[in-house]
Amino acid sequence: MVHSNFKLAEPSLLLTKGWINDEQVSAASGKTFDVIDPANGDVWTSAPAMDQVDTDKAIAAATEAFKSFSQVTARQRARMILKLDELVREHKEDLAQLLVMESGKALVEARAEVDYATTYSWLMAGEAERIQGEAIKANDNPSMRFFTQKVPIGPVALLCPWNFPLVIVLRKMATALAAGCTMVIKPSPETPTTTLALALLAQKAGVPKGVVNVVTASNETTPEVGKKLCEDKRIKKVSFTGSTAIGKLLMSLCAPSLKKMTLELGGNGGWVVFDDAELEKSADALMANKLRHAGQVCVCANRVFVQKGVFDKFAALVEERMRKLKFGHGLDHDSTNGPVTTERGAARAVTLVEDAVNNGGKLVMGGKRFGTGYLFEPTLVLGAGREAQVYREEMFAPIVSLYPFEDEDEVVELCNATDMGLSNYVWTQNISRAWRCFERLESGTVAINTANANTAESPFGGIKESGIGKEGGLHHGVDEFCVIKVAAMTV
Ligand SMILES: NC(=O)c1ccc[n+]([C@@H]2O[C@H](COP(=O)([O-])OP(=O)(O)OC[C@H]3O[C@@H](n4cnc5c(N)ncnc54)[C@H](O)[C@@H]3O)[C@@H](O)[C@H]2O)c1
Ligand SMILES: O=CCCC(=O)O
């Protein structure tokens, strides 16, 4: 059953077909798949289960469109992105409702995601106009000159996850448009509806036919669609956000054609609370960081390290805050948080808690599923051993797990003892220690006295096995969609 608060002001924003060459299309096979409301497990809409046959058509459309779109001026592209940005803002409430229904997150978070997404469309409209080259005079030859020009790399594949379907798709889409690339977008099977709505809004914004294509794939057809997009030589770049395991698989598929990739993958970040930290502020911030979208954020802190002298006090502050939360359907007015998005995510949360307790963790609250969908209680665990999965692996669940530590050297070593390197968080009032931690911690971002590791104009991306390349930032993100050509001449 569809939740009674689900009412779109513009019902045509809910599309149930794929989007190829500016047309709404069914899968060639005629197959469809169900889209589930994660809060109750009910089917609320469907999408075509497209496969490599449909993907081939989408690649052909993007390839044909690139011939003319690559010649569109930067100012024209900027205007299209600005119009898209305006339309997303205009339809904020509808997009937020679609986000709740497909991903499960609470409405307040969904609205924040729409706002956050438009920080990227706004930035990228400006970035389109800042793509310029350089004039270089040779250092050892008085008559040689070199000129560089950044040109769009070509048709690109955007493979997107289910946790932030609007911000991640709009971030990649607006960046590709800024650079002058055409695209085939594959949303995650759980969350096709906001991507399809964005394709419709891009059309309304004047983005030409064939520039934006959306191939909706089921969990069964996703591997063949992903393989086709990585292997097809007409696609010049793949931008993927998702798990490290799938990122590695896609990289192996891109290797034979040496396809350029941007990979935004998983994390296992530390949240480090030193004994001089503002504990109340850190506990408040931890709720926003760790329990946002039920803990399913790549930049969520995974391991909360608290210095021994303040461990009990901090644990009490965290528990007090967690007990005030109300996990429920994202469209219920009193829900502060929603469910996890998938059945596999909810099932895994159960085993993570069991395993943490088996490894010496003390379960203070939560630990169980409830309701008919994928709701999971906010869970607090203290002092699990370092063999526990909650310590070693990215949880992607609303489980807060606290570990005591002695001193700075120890905690830096603990934070860095992982293959991941996305974000770490440091809470201290000692500015020298904060700076030392920034320099010593192995992650793309080190956030100091804040829960926020990301903003559109700052480059975002992991190191180690958390990824390759950057998104957003001034020139960083858009450069990933360009190649540099050099002209050399004698004067
Ligand atoms: N970095 C992120 O923002 C992010 C987002 C979603 C999931 N994850 C990671 O994934 C884990 C669990 O999520 P999951 O169960 O969906 O994991 P998963 O590894 O099965 O899938 C991750 C994403 O990749 C897509 N995918 C899977 N196989 C693919 C293929 N062959 N080609 C193209 N796309 C493919 C999925 O549809 C999904 O969106 C989490 O614990 C987290 O580590 C990270
Ligand atoms: O999960 C990844 C996206 C989160 C973000 O952009 O802050």
TrEMBL record:
PANTHER family: SUCCINATE-SEMIALDEHYDE DEHYDROGENASE, MITOCHONDRIAL. It comes from the Eukaryota. Gene3D superfamilies: Aldehyde Dehydrogenase, Chain A, domain 1, Aldehyde Dehydrogenase, Chain A, domain 2. Keywords: Oxidoreductase. GO terms for biological process: gamma-aminobutyric acid catabolic process. Residues 27-486 form the Aldehyde dehydrogenase domain. Its EC number is 1.2.1.24. It comes from Cutaneotrichosporon cavernicola. Belongs to the aldehyde dehydrogenase family. GO terms for cellular component: cytoplasm. The keyword Transferase does not apply. GO terms for molecular function: succinate-semialdehyde dehydrogenase (NAD+) activity. The lineage of its organism: Eukaryota, Fungi, Dikarya, Basidiomycota, Agaricomycotina. The keyword Lyase does not apply. Pfam families: Aldedh. Pathway: Amino-acid degradation; 4-aminobutanoate degradation. InterPro entries: Ald_DH/histidinol_DH (IPR016161), Ald_DH_C (IPR016163), Ald_DH_CS_CYS (IPR016160), Ald_DH_N (IPR016162), Aldehyde_DH_dom (IPR015590), Aldehyde_DH_Superfamily (IPR050740). This is Succinate-semialdehyde dehydrogenase, mitochondrial.
